[in-house]
Predict the 3D structure of the following.
Amino acid sequence: MRKKSELPSKLCAHCALPFTWRKKWERDWEQVKYCSERCRRATAPSPTEGGERR
């Protein structure tokens, strides 16, 4: 078993706080950008998603 301090970490693209590797991210750690689902949802939607209201 590894200590948490020995695990790789990244900075969240939304809140800029550090987060560490999790087992559920094992296969796609390179693509993980956000520390949580809340931060992922809080990012601005892209213009192609039709976010404009009339």
